[in-house]
Amino acid sequence: ALPISILVCLVLGVLFGRGGLLAFDESVLLQMRLHRALVAFLCGGALSVAGAVVQTLFRNPLASPQILGTTSGATLGAHLALVGSVVLLRGSGVLGIAPEMLIPIGATLGATVSLFLLLAVISLREEPLALLLTGFALMSLFQGASTFLMSVNQEAWEIGRASCRERV
């Protein structure tokens, strides 16, 4: 029953859209909706696999990937990219990359750095408890740094957010 409901949701996600209930215009279906629905489908599958791996690793059905600190590392990377884009670059891109793309790139880099830090510490002690404690320490460190960064740059963040609204 679950695979059938997933396929029904995928088909409904392609057929139903913002522009109208059913848009049978082939260009809309193939160029916009199908790609977005497939990406959402793949992202959801990847997130469910990541959650299942973490729950299996810790043998706890309530464990989440946030325990390892990669989520907080991604948040810090996104905040660094946001502050760099708004404060340092004044809302302009860098190296031909649009400013709105700097945030997902920063989040990916932050999660990768967090994962490498976690693996470097775990290589010294290969115990589940060391993995858990290192993940909590990294999570606290990255959340604290992210909160500090946002509190220091609160005024610039509001100005940047207001300038983004004016462009739209």
Keyphrases for this structure?
mainly alpha, 168 residues, 6 helices
Describe this structure in words.
The chain is mainly α and 168 residues long. Helices cover 77% and strands 0% of the residues. The protein is built from 6 helices and no strands. It has helices at residues 2-15, 26-58, 70-88, 99-122, 128-152, 154-167. α1 packs antiparallel against α2 (26-58). The longest helix has 33 residues, at 26-58. The chain is flat and about 55 Å long. The model has no long low-confidence stretch (mean pLDDT 78).
Determine the number of helices (DSSP H or I, runs of at least 4 residues).
Answer: 6
Task: State the helicity in percent bands.
Answer: over 70%
Report the span from N to C terminus: 43 Å
Low-confidence stretches: none
List the helices and strands in order.
HHHHHH
Roughly what is the average pLDDT, rounded to an integer? Answer: 78
Instruction: Tell me the radius of gyration.
Output: 20 Å
Largest sheet: none
Number of strands: 0
Topology:
Elements: H1 2-15, H2 26-58, H3 70-88, H4 99-122, H5 128-152, H6 154-167
Helix pairs in contact: 1-2, 3-4, 3-5, 3-6, 4-5
In short:
The chain is mostly helical and 168 residues long. 77% of the residues lie in helices and 0% in strands.
